[in-house]
């Protein structure tokens, strides 16, 4: 099965992670215990997972013309993802997430979106042919709403199944995107934002899933964290 995965690159990032005993105070420098750098994010992780299940995956994303972007693209290619549709921006940098983790496992994160913000309506139009050849198009909610909506409009016009994960959840989640969605997957917070139904139990989740099915999707999935 072929998949086009136009993954909004605000979750296609270079992760820079330092581990330290305690967080620095303003103006303070602390010594790190270890350091890790890698690529990832919602979109990239989903693409790799599908590729490992032997799906044909094409990633539509946007990176900067820099070492982080090249490294990320090379890493995904090694994992079996088709990166031929990844665009390179000459006006912005690859998105980054700078993470600090203390001895208690707590973290602070600074996310800089960079080229991810350039995934707009024009980007969707440029990849219309790729979208039309796909069996499924997946998107999440961390870039231009107009770009996301145009992506799904094209998919629907071309008879391609749409899968939407409206993460991260916000109170004003775009319900016009939900109307264009065949399969929706949310966590409890996102389900509550969409439906107005408070979440806490399995029965609450069932009610929210039923409500989401009235908004357009044919299938609704709610993840429950530690509860399943």
Automatic annotation (TrEMBL):
<dbReference type="GO" id="GO:0006014">
    <property type="term" value="P:D-ribose metabolic process"/>
</dbReference>
<keyword id="KW-0630">Potassium</keyword>
<dbReference type="GO" id="GO:0005524">
    <property type="term" value="F:ATP binding"/>
</dbReference>
<protein>
    <submittedName>
        <fullName>Ribokinase</fullName>
    </submittedName>
</protein>
<dbReference type="GO" id="GO:0004747">
    <property type="term" value="F:ribokinase activity"/>
</dbReference>
<dbReference type="Pfam" id="PF00294">
    <property type="entry name" value="PfkB"/>
</dbReference>
<dbReference type="GO" id="GO:0046872">
    <property type="term" value="F:metal ion binding"/>
</dbReference>
<keyword id="KW-0808">Transferase</keyword>
<dbReference type="GO" id="GO:0005829">
    <property type="term" value="C:cytosol"/>
</dbReference>
<dbReference type="InterPro" id="IPR011877">
    <property type="entry name" value="Ribokinase"/>
</dbReference>
<dbReference type="InterPro" id="IPR029056">
    <property type="entry name" value="Ribokinase-like"/>
</dbReference>
<dbReference type="InterPro" id="IPR011611">
    <property type="entry name" value="PfkB_dom"/>
</dbReference>
<feature type="domain" description="Carbohydrate kinase PfkB">
    <location>
        <begin position="20"/>
        <end position="228"/>
    </location>
</feature>
<keyword id="KW-0547">Nucleotide-binding</keyword>
<dbReference type="InterPro" id="IPR002139">
    <property type="entry name" value="Ribo/fructo_kinase"/>
</dbReference>
<keyword id="KW-0460">Magnesium</keyword>
<keyword id="KW-0418">Kinase</keyword>
<keyword id="KW-0067">ATP-binding</keyword>
<keyword id="KW-0479">Metal-binding</keyword>
<keyword id="KW-0119">Carbohydrate metabolism</keyword>
